[in-house]
């Protein structure tokens, strides 16, 4: 496997860390190299729906597929291609930067490819309930070429104090990275009008929850 350089001299590393520190969320463009983005895009484009699964809401014992809340297809990411390995390495570097500068104690990172077919959406939700999850910081990397207003599928972020107050609305354009505190920010994915690709992931701490050490995917 060839080695892909994930970052460039323009990677807004400091910006993302500062945003999280100051307001708890961050949306930046050009975080990863063109080379990595193109490789990830090629990677997910080749995945057939038959090798993905209809995402459920909730985890482990309460896992169930509730299609009226969420209708994307997902595939968890392991370092089996050079693109996926480079992405996981890069996110590990970001994890260490958060730990060094903000003392967040992030232990690991899990991520999945997501495909929203035409008509798919994800209703407003939070990624983690206080005290019930190891997920601390959510990330979403978008992988869509030439995404226009008519394509829908915006990511909408809401205020941490008032879930009816919108704080930002972003098109899922190629190379855009959203990061936010998992417990604090409600968000949703508006209905996509064509196939929408992304990688959603979570930095986690290693607390045990209800006697379940580090619950699995
Ligand atoms: O794709 C997005 O914009 C957000 C996805 C999301 O909220 C999730 O997978 O939990
Ligand atoms: Fe989410």
Automatic annotation (TrEMBL):
<keyword id="KW-0847">Vitamin C</keyword>
<dbReference type="Pfam" id="PF13640">
    <property type="entry name" value="2OG-FeII_Oxy_3"/>
</dbReference>
<dbReference type="InterPro" id="IPR044862">
    <property type="entry name" value="Pro_4_hyd_alph_FE2OG_OXY"/>
</dbReference>
<dbReference type="InterPro" id="IPR051559">
    <property type="entry name" value="HIF_prolyl_hydroxylases"/>
</dbReference>
<keyword id="KW-0479">Metal-binding</keyword>
<dbReference type="GO" id="GO:0031543">
    <property type="term" value="F:peptidyl-proline dioxygenase activity"/>
</dbReference>
<dbReference type="GO" id="GO:0008198">
    <property type="term" value="F:ferrous iron binding"/>
</dbReference>
<protein>
    <recommendedName>
        <fullName>Fe2OG dioxygenase domain-containing protein</fullName>
    </recommendedName>
</protein>
<dbReference type="GO" id="GO:0031418">
    <property type="term" value="F:L-ascorbic acid binding"/>
</dbReference>
<keyword id="KW-0560">Oxidoreductase</keyword>
<keyword id="KW-0408">Iron</keyword>
<dbReference type="InterPro" id="IPR006620">
    <property type="entry name" value="Pro_4_hyd_alph"/>
</dbReference>
<dbReference type="GO" id="GO:0071456">
    <property type="term" value="P:cellular response to hypoxia"/>
</dbReference>
<dbReference type="InterPro" id="IPR005123">
    <property type="entry name" value="Oxoglu/Fe-dep_dioxygenase_dom"/>
</dbReference>
<keyword id="KW-0223">Dioxygenase</keyword>
<feature type="domain" description="Fe2OG dioxygenase">
    <location>
        <begin position="106"/>
        <end position="205"/>
    </location>
</feature>
């Amino acid at each position: 496997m060839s080695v892909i350089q994930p970052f460039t001299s323009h990677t807004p590393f400091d910006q993302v860390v500062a945003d999280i520190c100051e307001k708890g969320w961050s949306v930046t463009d050009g975080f990863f190299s063109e080379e990595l983005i193109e490789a990830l895009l090629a990677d997910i484009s080749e995945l057939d729906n038959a090798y993905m699964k209809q995402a459920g809401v909730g985890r482990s014992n309460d896992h169930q597929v509730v299609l009226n809340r969420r209708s994307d297809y997902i595939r968890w990411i392991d370092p089996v291609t050079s693109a996926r390995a480079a992405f996981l390495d890069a996110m590990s570097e970001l994890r260490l930067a958060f730990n060094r500068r903000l003392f967040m104690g992030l232990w690991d990172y899990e991520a999945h490819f997501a495909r929203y077919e035409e008509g798919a959406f994800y209703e407003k939700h939070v990624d983690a309930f206080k005290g019930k999850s190891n997920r601390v910081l959510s990330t979403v990397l978008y992988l869509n070429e030439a995404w226009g207003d008519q394509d829908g599928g915006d990511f909408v972020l809401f205020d941490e104090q008032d879930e009816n107050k919108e704080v930002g609305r972003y098109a899922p354009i190629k190379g855009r990275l959203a990061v936010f505190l998992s417990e604090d920010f409600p968000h949703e994915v508006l209905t996509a009008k064509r196939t929408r690709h992304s990688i959603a992931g979570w930095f986690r701490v290693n607390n045990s929850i209800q006697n379940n050490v580090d619950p699995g995917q």
